[in-house]
Predict the structure.
Amino acid sequence: MILVIGATGMLGSEICRLLRKENQPVRALARETADQSKVHNLKELGIEIVEGDLRKSATFQPALEGVTTVITTASSMPFTYVPGENDPVLVDRNGMIALVDAAKQAGIKRFIYTSFTGSIDIDFPLRNAKRAVEKHLQESGITYTILRPGFFMEGWLSAMVGFDAANAKVRLCGDGTQPVSYISYFDVARFAVESLKNPHARNAILELGGPEKLSQLDAVKIFEDVTGKKFEVEHVPVEALQSQLETATDPMQKSFAGLMLCYAKGDPIDMKDMTSRFNISLKPVKEHARNMVAVA
Ligand SMILES: NC(=O)c1ccc[n+]([C@@H]2O[C@H](COP(=O)([O-])OP(=O)(O)OC[C@H]3O[C@@H](n4cnc5c(N)ncnc54)[C@H](OP(=O)(O)O)[C@@H]3O)[C@@H](O)[C@H]2O)c1
């Protein structure tokens, strides 16, 4: 039995779909407050649901009963953030560390944890939580895989962060010239599932990017070509992002500023070795842009 935590989220639900496609037995830990249509979709896939919450360690033991592998993609950032209640310290750090401890106690054989790329390396709550969990998991003795994906194209090239392709208006972080290896979360899900059987994923940190290193301006050009529209481009200077990071008082704003600053500074990932070890062909940004235009 594989326990997925974060199954109602974007990446977690895709991992669940792929696991069920392989007929793997899957259980999902879902919060009482989770969107019931998402829970329903998981049930339709043949997934067993257990109620639980990373902030409530008493819910772990029943969820871990009969489980050999844990895959976790859960995070409080950015959609489920509630100040002082569901935040990077309580969920991403404390909750996840408690989960690793419970998994060890339950004799779990394999733990796949979703972190983010190593170049996100400045002091902010979400980054500190991810690195603390990585370390705790590595020291736990459980066979681990730490997935360290870069920036998801579905998130960072979307209106949610100011990349409004539908209205041909984008707001870039910094001057937009630094290379970023945008990755599709669909590909991250495939790495998660292939990690279960690929020996290269045993006790390994997998830095994951897409097939190309593109600047934010390159990404704009791709969207302009695909849509046939000229985009209006605005820049948020690095100094403004830095000051946002320094002055933000709540962990969500601080973490978001930190992520934008790292994004502005670039996140190139060489995938040559990884693609020779894993049989996964990576989605290029152009394909994502075409899909976005097709559904608009
Ligand atoms: N977006 C990016 O560019 C990017 C890049 C690199 C790495 N990542 C990492 O990839 C992972 C997946 O991202 P995503 O976009 O798929 O996330 P997402 O859609 O926001 O999903 C988050 C999941 O975490 C669950 N969750 C939140 N608080 C919880 C709690 N207290 N207890 C249990 N579950 C809780 C949510 O459940 P509910 O449905 O109940 O809210 C949801 O299932 C995250 O760890 C993220 O940091 C993202």
The beta strands are 2-5, 26-30, 48-51, 69-72, 110-114, 143-149, 163-164, 169-173, 204-208, 232-236.
